[in-house]
Each structure stands twice: as structure tokens, then as C-alpha cells.
Amino acid sequence: MAYKYETVIGLEVHAELSTNSKLFCNCEVKFGSEANTQTCPICLGMPGVLPVMNQRAVEFSIRAALGLNCKIASYSKFDRKNYFYPDLPKGYQISQYDLPLAYDGHVDYELDGETKRVRINRIHLEEDAGKLVHADVTGNPNQSYVDFNRSCVPLLEIVSEPDLRSPAEAIAYWRAVKEILEYVEISDCNMEEGSFRCDANISLRPVGSKELGTRTELKNKNSFQHVMTALEYEEKRQARILDQGGKVIQETVLFDINTGRTASMRSKEEAHDYRYFPEPDLVPFEVDAAEVERIRAALPELPAERRKRFVEEYGIPTYDAEFLTATRQMADFFDETARLSSDPKGSSNWIMGDLSGLLNNAGIEIQDAKVTPAHLSELIELIKNQTISGKIAKSVLPDVFETGKTPKQIVEEKGLSQISDASAIESIVDQVIEENPGPAQDYRDGKQKAIGFLVGQVMKATRGKANPQMVNQLLQQKLTG
């Protein structure tokens, strides 16, 4: 397949906006509420109700579009997308068709050390549908419930061009979009809660052909791994059909996570199937150019720019920069720590190592931790000025993480200050040499590694508080003098 066919993939990424209220009514947007408690006549589609547009949702959409390098339409409108499904109370969805809010953008992403670009066709704003609750919750395979809490939640749809050439590229692009949306703070992109998901379209064509093949669509997935596996399966399935002289059917497929296979759900709809027409209850709207520039000026430094700056300004490896910019909060934390400590690499090492371990074990994000950049920079400074050793610092950080106290407070309370008084260490070194004649003689006989055991004994006797450099120097002087 690799040499015979070329894979062509396009993604439609959906992100729920983190507004306080819904797109066309004042109902609260709150995940996890009791079913059908965040509803009103407007989002339930009752006869005679009139929607009113949420201005904040438009602002968030513009912020996202600018982060994705899109042009903002000066004139836009909403349309009715007509179809029947139990979770769509009105029998149509208020969406955008021919005049979307944004268009003609692109996203750059990294894969295997190479920078690639995906063009964005359009970004439009629409209302989300409700949520069907099936047998895994109801316990009855013949019965489903509908929760309309999600109905009318503002949803941004980002439609890419078919520029992706492998499942791995699709996932790398999808991750890059998620990262940007989180940085511009328009969505929490919580995949487990369903606020960030995608539809994936995939087709195959003979290598060298410019004509697109017949595509299938994987619908409404919220897992990187599931989409990856489903696309890989579709590649193989479509290749088998083409190899046997058959034709791929344009259809929507479902992915079974238990079997790792896709199955036909329904024939794939085209735009005309939805009978789009302008939404008569909402007037078209114009976006002021000055407002767009105001939003653009307020955008944060985006992840790709920040990675580049971290490497150039702080001199840290690319791997470190990629890790530290995974979230905006992590990048902010590192930026501040590096500035306060004047030790970017040391800051990076502590954040990527010990601090990340503590965060993972606690199951929290860095912005929710009691450790602050000021705490970590103070810890680094205590090591630099030899108040404590690196080993002692590793025992101090968990206490800071647990209590929120400063490293200096913990060092003072527990008496952990490093012993750098040569006379105090010398007496312990003499004692260790006397109590361990074998290793001492081994070192005199040229076995350099033997000094490591003796250093360890001194550190043990001082509960790790002796200055390791001074211990090494004194042992060498005593054993070779």
C-alpha cells in the first residue's frame, strides 16, 4: 500500500468554547450537571422562541481564528442546517454555511523533526447538539435517553484542507490545534468531557494522482489513540477494496474500540442533503476591523513561537522546549523560574524531573500546585550558594509541594543547611578513614572508585549535609598526603 496508494486525510475539529453561557440563551455552561437541568425554552427548541447571539462566543472564535492564522470575515451570518436526530430538538442546527466567520488559515506542526503545514479551509461557529445516553448507562439495549444540557453550547468547527498524508500526520496536526486553542484560552479542550473532538475524512488515491479518492468519515471521536487506530484500519480496508478491483463507498463509519475495526453507520451526507438556508431569527453580523486588531494585540505568545524563543534565549535543548511549552501554564512557570533563578537549564531540569513527578503522582496541573516559580528559583539558589546539596534539595521540594512553605523555611525548620566548615568535616573524614581501612588502602593502591564508598560514609554520618566537594578534597588530601 505504501508504494501503490497515497493516503489523503482532512479533519473537522470541534471545540466547545469556554463561555459562561450558551450560544443563543443565558443557560449556564457547566459540565457534569444533572441531566436536563441547564436548559430553557430556547435551547430546547420550543415554538416561538427567539435566539440572541452570545457576543463573547464571537470574540472567542475570532481569538481562535487569529491563533490559527485565519482571515476574519467582515460580514458573516448564521444558517439552518436541517436534519433529524433525537438530540436535535428543533430539527435543525444553527450553524454557518456559505459565509463563515473565518477562512484561509494554516497550522504548522512538527513530526519526526520536520515542520509541516496544513491549510485551514474555514472556521465557523455553531450550536452543539444534545447528548444521547445509551445502553452502557441505561442498562437496556433497547432504550436511550437524551440529555439536553449540551444543546446550544457554543461550538467552533475548524475544517482543514485534505493536506494530511498519514494517520500520524493527522494526530500531530490535531494536537497542534489543541495546543493553540488552549494557549489562546478559548476552550478547555477536555477530551474526556467531550469538549474537544473531531471528524476525520480519509481516502486513498494512486500515487501520482491529483484526483481525490472516495472518502469515508469517522464521526465525533475524542481520543487521539482511537482516531489513529481507526485511520490505520481504514487505510488497510480501503487498500484491500481497491486491490480487489472494488469501489470504496462514501459513508460514515463507526470505530469499535474493542475490535479495532470500523463498521458502516450510514451513507455520507453532502451539503445539499442538509437544505441549508439563512437563519431568519438572527440578522447577519459585521466584525469591525479595529476589534479584530484589538483581539490580535491581546493574543499570548503562541506555542511554536515560544518554543523557538526558549531555545534561542535560554539555550535549552529543543526537547526541553517542547516539553515545557506543552501547556501555556507550564511555559509561564518555566519562563518565570528561569528569569528569577538566572539558571534556565537548572529550572528546566527541576520542572521536567522532580516537579513533574510530584504533579503526576498528585494528579494535578502545575497551575494548581502550591509550588511557585519563586519557590523553585529559591531552591536553585540554595544549591548554588551551597546552603544545601542537590540531594538535600530533592528532599526539600516534596515538602514545599505539600505545604507551600518556602525552601528556606523548610531548610531552617529541619536543620538541613549544608556543612561547609572544613574543620567540622575533617574530623568525620578522619573517623571514616580509620573505620574503613580496606577501601582507604584500595584508593591508595590506585583504585579510584574506592573513594566513592568513603564519600558515601561521610555523607551518611552527616545525614547528607556535608559539602560533597569539600568531602572529596579532604579525602584525597588525607589518603595521598
TrEMBL record:
Keywords: ATP-binding, Ligase, Mitochondrion, Nucleotide-binding, Protein biosynthesis. Residues 332-479 form the Asn/Gln amidotransferase domain. The keyword Amino-acid biosynthesis does not apply. PROSITE patterns: GATB (PS01234). It is an enzyme of class 6 (ligase). GO terms for molecular function: ATP binding; glutaminyl-tRNA synthase (glutamine-hydrolyzing) activity. GO terms for biological process: glutaminyl-tRNAGln biosynthesis via transamidation; mitochondrial translation. Its EC number is 6.3.5.-. InterPro entries: Asn/Gln-tRNA_amidoTrfase_suB/E, Asn/Gln-tRNA_Trfase_suB/E_cat, Asn/Gln_amidotransferase, Asn/Gln_tRNA_amidoTrase-B-like, GatB, GatB_C_1, GatB_Yqey_C_2, Gln-tRNA_amidoTrfase_suB_CS. GO terms for cellular component: glutamyl-tRNA(Gln) amidotransferase complex; mitochondrion. SUPFAM superfamilies: GatB/YqeY motif (SSF89095), Glutamine synthetase/guanido kinase (SSF55931). Pfam families: GatB_N (PF02934), GatB_Yqey (PF02637). Its main location: mitochondrion. It is found in: Mitochondrion. It catalyses: L-glutamyl-tRNA(Gln) + L-glutamine + ATP + H2O = L-glutaminyl-tRNA(Gln) + L-glutamate + ADP + phosphate + H(+); L-aspartyl-tRNA(Asn) + L-glutamine + ATP + H2O = L-asparaginyl-tRNA(Asn) + L-glutamate + ADP + phosphate + 2 H(+). It comes from the Eukaryota. The keyword NAD does not apply. NCBIfam families: gatB, PRK05477.1-2, PRK05477.1-4, PRK05477.1-5. Allows the formation of correctly charged Gln-tRNA(Gln) through the transamidation of misacylated Glu-tRNA(Gln) in the mitochondria. The reaction takes place in the presence of glutamine and ATP through an activated gamma-phospho-Glu-tRNA(Gln). Belongs to the GatB/GatE family. GatB subfamily. Heterotrimer of A, B and C subunits. Subunit of the heterotrimeric GatCAB amidotransferase (AdT) complex, composed of A, B and C subunits. This is Glutamyl-tRNA(Gln) amidotransferase subunit B, mitochondrial. It comes from Geodia barretti.
